[in-house]
Write a sequence for this structure.
């Protein structure tokens, strides 16, 4: 008997060491813009996806499976996004996907993963068409963030009630569903709040000279200028607003969230307000712990994209754990049934459209930094 124990004791560590390499693996994909015009979005998302996966693997994986992954760059381009989604589902045969990041890239991805029946969660894509098209739910598609009808209405109300805006001008990219969608929501909500929409003008995706449009804005007499686009374009427009000597309050949605916004716009963006998904100044312990962890690893405070990517990856891992399997259909069912998940950006319950019901944070750019103003509940 004694000998038997001895043999086991000697053998046991060896067995433990051997098990992981024979253990089952689950392969998941990440689609994120690592190059192109919104590359800071993609980098934050990749950083946080990796933190969540590494943490889970360090705990022994999920449902007895080690997580392996494939990361693809969609360059924030719709065609590129469709290509990499096809590659992930058809060639890499991933069981689930996190991504993509912008609505522009995620809408085409959602159609591909729906046809292939691969459960997918976008951390950050807020346009309604990501999960529902022509009134039909894409039931393999989920997201860890709120949607644009909510944030557009939040900023319209804020512009009226807090900034005391009487008349608004809206400039948007007609080729970008996110930009156009939220422009329309803001316009309608601002009117509903009793405000006037004095200018509603669009530009093209490659435009860099906004002088003619800003002349119209000036002539309209608007006191609020809503800019629903990503940080690159917003930075450029804000600079030209300043050069023209236009006196307007700048307001926008989550697309403003990048450390590069202030680098591009400089003082022109000072005093601007935008809606976002979280604030690093939030004192909830889960936020404090997360900000510390990310900072230690990447030397900077996580932006909303990074935070939502950590949440989205953990939501997916939780679903795999609940499913107890790598079967995409079971993972989809588990994702759909998640309630009150304790995400860093706030409690997450996925509604019947797979969208998260979440609060929005309003932030102000002050002294070149993002300052937390307040939370707004749905
Ligand atoms: N909501 C944006 C979109 O749908 C992406 C985004 C999210 C950008 C969060 C910045 C911060 O395209």
């Amino acid at each position: 008997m004694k000998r038997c124990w001895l043999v086991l004791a000697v053998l046991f560590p060896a067995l433990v060491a051997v098990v992981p390499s024979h253990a089952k693996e689950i392969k998941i994909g990440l689609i994120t813009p690592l190059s192109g015009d919104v590359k800071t979005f993609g980098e934050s998302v990749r950083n946080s996806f990796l933190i969540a996966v590494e943490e889970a693997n360090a705990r022994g994986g999920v449902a007895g499976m080690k997580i392996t992954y494939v990361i693809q760059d969609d360059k924030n381009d719709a065609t590129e996004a469709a290509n990499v989604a096809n590659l992930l589902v058809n060639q890499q045969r991933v069981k689930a996907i996190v991504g993509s990041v912008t609505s522009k890239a995620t809408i085409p991805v959602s159609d591909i993963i729906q046809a292939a029946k691969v459960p997918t969660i976008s951390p950050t894509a807020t346009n309604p068409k990501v999960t529902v098209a022509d009134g039909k739910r894409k039931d393999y598609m989920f997201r860890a963030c709120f949607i644009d009808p909510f944030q557009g209405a939040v900023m319209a109300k804020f512009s009226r009630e807090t900034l005391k805006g009487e008349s608004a001008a809206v400039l948007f990219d007609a080729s970008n569903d996110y930009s156009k969608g939220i422009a329309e929501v803001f316009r309608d909500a601002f009117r509903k709040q009793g405000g006037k929409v004095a200018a509603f003008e669009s530009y093209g995706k490659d435009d860099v000279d906004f002088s003619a449009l800003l002349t119209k804005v000036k002539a309209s007499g608007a006191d609020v200028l809503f800019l629903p686009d990503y940080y690159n374009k917003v930075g450029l427009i804000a600079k030209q607003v300043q050069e023209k000597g236009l006196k307007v309050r700048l307001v926008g949605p989550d697309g403003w969230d990048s450390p590069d916004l202030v680098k591009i716009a400089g003082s022109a963006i000072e005093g601007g307000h935008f809606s976002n998904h979280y604030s690093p100044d939030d004192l909830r312990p889960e936020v404090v712990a997360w900000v510390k962890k990310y900072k230690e690893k990447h030397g900077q405070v996580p932006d909303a994209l990074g935070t939502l990517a950590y949440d989205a990856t953990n939501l997916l891992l939780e679903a795999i754990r609940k499913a107890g399997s790598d079967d995409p259909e079971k993972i989809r069912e588990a994702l759909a049934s998640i309630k009150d998940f304790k995400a860093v950006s706030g409690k997450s319950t996925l509604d019947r459209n797979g969208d998260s019901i979440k609060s929005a944070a309003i932030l102000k750019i002050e002294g070149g930094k993002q300052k937390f103003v307040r939370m707004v509940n749905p």
